[in-house]
Each structure stands twice: as structure tokens, then as C-alpha cells.
Specification:
With 396 residues, this protein is of the alpha/beta class. It contains 7 helices and 27 strands. It has a 6-stranded mixed sheet, sandwiched between helices. Helix 3 packs parallel to helix 6. The chain starts with 8 loop residues before the first strand and ends in an 8-residue tail after the last strand. The structure holds adenosine monophosphate (AMP) and magnesium ion.
Length: 396
């Protein structure tokens, strides 16, 4: 992960910045709210004149005007007077309290107040949410819907955020056909292009598109160079293993890529590879549909989040009680697709069914990946396992 750095800051319209990370501190140029205003529909009054009100001895005030939200304050409330006021309307000069209409006879030319207000009741003061000049958000802050709302209320229509990585996908394999093409002997549909671009989008990065290349050394080399042209990151699927028709590694070598790692003692996804080519990250994911998705989830997604300036790169972890026995060979760490449920404050994990790396259905059922260590060969039903909660936002 040390090889991956946040991208440069770019200016972005507020409306396009959801899930991005701020690259600047934001100071308020205006107070929020901008002026003292009413928190209720009711009557703006002078506290001194309304304090003695009671059901038996209502205070009666002359209603001199009406103020709706959006009106500007041109009126003054004097002794013996009130102004009908709606939520969000500016408090007129002279008034220091708003009596909500439920505490009155609803009023007309005159209003009777039945309950004594407290000084300042139902007034939202200018700057009570955000003062002018206040530091509202710090650089590195993640922009969620609430942050977008706050920035809108401050009139920040543009802001600096870390750029979203542009991700190109390259699918290798003579067997691949498009999802609209007629099925033919020996062919399979290119599902990785779709699952991967969806994972890229779900991570908040920009999916540029995908291309496919047949299993041929020259074509693979050319497709890699093409793919990286306008991308910050290239993800290659298939062809990274040691089969007779796996040409990705060779192509990367002839292109002069710096191999950072190849092969991880894990299942699924053993032949996972990572290079830097011209300073850009290139991931080689094994072609099996589950391997592709799991490797993206565990390795590529954190890298993309780091490029976007995120502080938290990894999904929440839980200790879950495995509901059934699980057997495996010692040697590789397993990522087992599980359904995690919380019951009585404890997490329970059940397997999604067969765990073959081609069984993509297992991913549609799963909301977690149980991590079974390399040295473990058996987990008994009722034993705890570590689970990555893949549906929840990163927390570390
Ligand atoms: P490979 O990693 O190229 O050896 O491919 C491993 C398995 O994944 C083979 O069964 C491939 O047919 C399958 N596969 C490779 N690429 C894709 C793809 N884009 N979509 C679906 N399956 C694929
Ligand atoms: Mg292949």
C-alpha cells in the first residue's frame, strides 16, 4: 500500500463531490443562519409585554403585520403590538421572543396569548449553527450527504477534492464473448468486465470502460499500453497465472513494468499480481469471477480509496461464530463467502454454499468474507472466525 499515493487535488462542483475527500479546509464566509429568524409559526412579540400571560388572564396584542419566510425585515414591534410570523421569517426589530401559535387564540387583528413565554423563545440566532469565519470542515474530511448540505448552505458551489482515479479494465481470454453476443461452443460471457466496473463505481472511482484482448503476447502488450493511456489505474483480469496462454506477466515484463508482487498464498485469487508501470498501479486479477471480485475487494478497493485521499481503507472486522464446520488444507489463507447476521449482540456467519472460485452466485448471497488463516485446517461449528463486513463503510 506504500506504493499508492493520493492523487492531486482538483476543483469539483459541489453537486459532483459526494463520497470524495476534501483537499482543503473550508471556512465559512457567512453565518448560518444568516439572520435571527423564527423557529415556529406564531407571533413576534416583546417579552416584557407578554410575560404575565395566562389562560385566565391572556395578554392581548395588536397584530400590525404579517411576516412570511423570505420577507425582509422592515417592521418594528412596539409595546402592545405583535407581528404574525412564519417559520424562517426574520425577527422584526423590537421583538425578542416568538410565541408559537398553539399558545394563542390564533389571532386576527388582535392576538390573545395564553401562556407566558420565556425570553428568546423560538428564535434561531444568526450564526448559532456556524459562525462567520469558523473552520467548518478540515482537509481529508469525507463528503457525505450531510457535508454536501452544509457546504450548500455556505454557498460553496465549487471545492477542492482529491481526484477520483480513472480506472480502465482489460479482460483477457480467447473464450470471452460480450453479453449481447450469441453463445458459441467453448465461449463464456465476459462477466468480469461488469462486476469489476461496478466495484470500481461502488468504490467512488471513475470506471472509464473495458476492453477485451485475445490470448496473444503481442495483442496483450498493445492492449496494456492502450489501456493505461488515459487511466490512472489499470485492472487486468485473467491471463496472470502460469498456463500456456497466460501472457500478462510476460507482456508487463517486456513493457518494463516494476513487479511489486505476484502470487499470494490465498484462495481464491492465488495468482494476484501488482505492478507499477510508468508510475501507475496495474493490478492483475485472476480470471475466475469470484477470484476477480474478492481480489478487488481485498486489494484494489483499498488502493483506490487511498488514491482518493480516504483515511479509512479497510472494512469493519467482526468476530463471528461459524455456524457450520469448515475444512481446508493448510498453506493458504481462505476468504470464505459468508452471510453474517447479528443476533443478541453477537455475529454469526454461515457459508453461502459451494465455495468454488467460479461460483459467482456465492458473491450475490454474501455480505462478508470470513478470513481463515493459512495454518488452520479445520474450523468447527461454534468456533469464532474473523469476518470482513463487505457491505459496511470502511472504519480503519
Ligand atoms: P485465467 O485467469 O485467465 O486462467 O481464467 C480463469 C478462469 O476464469 C477461466 O475459467 C476463464 O474462462 C474465467 N474468466 C476469465 N476471464 C473472465 C471474464 N472476463 N469473465 C468471466 N470469466 C472469466
Ligand atoms: Mg485466461
Amino acid at each position: 500500500m506504500n506504493e499508492i499515493r493520493p492523487l492531486q487535488a482538483v476543483e469539483m462542483p459541489l453537486s459532483a463531490s459526494l463520497s470524495q475527500v476534501l483537499a482543503e479546509d473550508i471556512f465559512s464566509k457567512e453565518p448560518i443562519p444568516p439572520f435571527d429568524n423564527s423557529a415556529m409559526d406564531g407571533y413576534a412579540v416583546r417579552f416584557a409585554g407578554a410575560r404575565g400571560a395566562s389562560k385566565d388572564g391572556p395578554v392581548k396584542l395588536k397584530v400590525i403585520s404579517d411576516l412570511a419566510a423570505g420577507c425582509s425585515d422592515e417592521f418594528t414591534v412596539s409595546a402592545g403590538q405583535a407581528i404574525r410570523i412564519m417559520t424562517g421569517a426574520p425577527i422584526p426589530s423590537g421583538a425578542d421572543t416568538v410565541v408559537k401559535q398553539e399558545d394563542t387564540d390564533m389571532g386576527g387583528d388582535e392576538v390573545a396569548i395564553f401562556f407566558p413565554p420565556k425570553l428568546g423563545d423560538n428564535i434561531r440566532l444568526a450564526g448559532e449553527d456556524i459562525a462567520k469565519g469558523e473552520k467548518v470542515l478540515e482537509a481529508k474530511h469525507l463528503l457525505r450527504p450531510a457535508e454536501i448540505g452544509v457546504l450548500a448552505s455556505l454557498g460553496c458551489s465549487k471545492l477542492k477534492v482529491f481526484a477520483r482515479p480513472k480506472v480502465q479494465i482489460l479482460c483477457t481470454g480467447d473464450e470471452l464473448i460480450g453479453i449481447d453476443e450469441a453463445m458459441a461452443p467453448g465461449k463464456i460471457r465476459n462477466s468480469n468486465a461488469y462486476s469489476l466496473s461496478s466495484q470500481v463505481k461502488a468504490a467512488g472511482a471513475e470506471a472509464l470502460g473495458f476492453s477485451t484482448v485475445r490470448d496473444d503476447p503481442q495483442a496483450t502488450k498493445k492492449a496494456i499500453s492502450e489501456g493505461l493511456k488515459s487511466a490512472d489505474v489499470l485492472i487486468i483480469t485473467g491471463g496472470v497465472s502460469v498456463g500456456d496462454y497466460d501472457f500478462v506477466k510476460e507482456a508487463m515484463e517486456t513493457l518494463g513494468a516494476e513487479q511489486k508482487f505476484w502470487k499470494v498464498a490465498q484462495r481464491p485469487g492465488m495468482p494476484l499480481a501488482f505492478w507499477l508501470l510508468g508510475g501507475k498501479p496495474v493490478f492483475g486479477l485472476p480470471g475466475n469471477p469470484v477470484s476477480t471480485m474478492v481480489c478487488f475487494e481485498e486489494y484494489v478497493r483499498p488502493a483506490l480509496l487511498k488514491m482518493m485521499g480516504r483515511k479509512h481503507l479497510f472494512r469493519p472486522e467482526a468476530q463471528a461464530i461459524l455456524k457450520e464446520d469448515f475444512k481446508k488444507k493448510v498453506a493458504r489463507q481462505f476468504f470464505v463467502r459468508v452471510i453474517v447476521r447479528a443476533e443478541d449482540g453477537r455475529h454469526y456467519a454461515s457459508l453461502t454454499g459451494p465455495q468454488g472460485s467460479g461460483i459467482l452466485k456465492s458473491m450475490t448471497l454474501a455480505n462478508g468474507l470470513a478470513v481463515i488463516p493459512a495454518e488452520t485446517d479445520f474450523v468447527a461449528a461454534g468456533d469464532p472466525v474473523k469476518v470482513h463486513l463487505t457491505e459496511l463503510p470502511e472504519d480503519h
